[in-house]
Write a structure and sequence with these properties.
CATH class: Alpha Beta
CATH superfamily: P-loop containing nucleotide triphosphate hydrolases
Oligomer: single chain
Bound molecules: adenosine-5'-triphosphate, magnesium ion
Shape: globular
CATH topology: Rossmann fold
Strand order of the largest sheet: 6-7-8-3-9-10
Number of helices: 7
Number of strands: 10
Strand content: 25-35%
Structural class: alpha/beta
């Protein structure tokens, strides 16, 4: 339980604009332990999504180091990062990012098929856990927002990641679906002992976290 899954040391991120540079994140230090639930809060534009992308290996910091499962991923190539994301990281986006031409079942299975690792039992377990067995053959355009996000959550967990990142996962859902999706995320986090890092604007949700960190102007408070 107390093993560190993720460590960020002295992270800095800036973006080059046409005539200037903006420093979005400065001096970020953060560590997440196995099975821990961390909420990230902060105003719009404060750098939450940027931080999540760096932690999840979707983008690279301008300076500093990120260690995932004891391995420094900072200087990984695109290919190495892609492999790492496949094996150790799950990511849930606000806007679902499902593949429109694949069914619910195929979307959930997708990370396994890329890794050429079939696991029907796991896919069935997750279809049941997110209560979508009856929609297994439906396509994303036939689903409600809550159903789409439940599919995305199952997909994010199918490869047994050590850590799951979610960027405002309930931001596009009404209150009822948001509560259901959140409850599901928490149940699965505990069932699989996955660390969970969530960006949220919802103080009620943050209360459920083991820890809440606040970003103000690109710095942790
Ligand atoms: N690729 C980019 N190029 C230039 N600026 C960027 C880029 N990505 C993000 N930014 C800037 O970095 C700042 C932080 O953006 P970020 O998306 O991390 O904010 P956020 O906290 O997630 O906001 P929100 O709550 O609105 O989602 C913003 O000022 C944004 O314009
Ligand atoms: Mg954001």
């Amino acid at each position: 339980m107390n093993q560190t899954v993720l460590e960020a040391n002295q992270i800095h991120k800036s973006f080059q604009l046409e005539r200037s540079q903006i420093d979005v994140l400065t001096d970020i230090n953060l560590s997440v332990k196995s099975g821990e639930f961390v909420a990230i809060m902060g105003k719009s534009g404060s750098g939450k999504s940027t931080l999540l992308s760096l932690l999840a290996g979707l983008d690279q910091p301008s300076a500093g180091h990120i260690t995932l499962n004891g391995e420094d991923i900072t200087n990984f190539s695109e290919e190495e990062l892609a492999l790492k994301r496949q094996s150790d990281i799950g990511f849930v986006f606000q806007s679902f990012h499902l593949i429109p031409t694949l069914s619910v079942r195929e979307n959930i299975e997708f990370p396994l098929s890329i890794a050429r690792h079939q696991d029907d039992e796991k896919v069935n377990e997750l279809l049941s856990a997110v209560e979508l067995e009856h929609r297994r053959d439906s396509f994303p355009h036939q689903l409600s927002g809550g159903e789409k996000q439940r599919t995305a959550i199952a997909r994010a967990l199918v490869a047994n990641p050590k850590i799951l990142f979610a960027d405002e996962p309930t931001g596009n859902l009404d209150e009822k679906n948001a509560n259901q999706v959140m409850q599901l995320l928490l149940n699965l986090q505990q069932a699989f002992n996955t660390a969970l890092v969530i960006v949220t604007h919802d103080p009620e949700l943050a209360k459920l976290a083991d820890r809440t960190i606040h970003i103000v102007d690109g710095k942790l408070q």
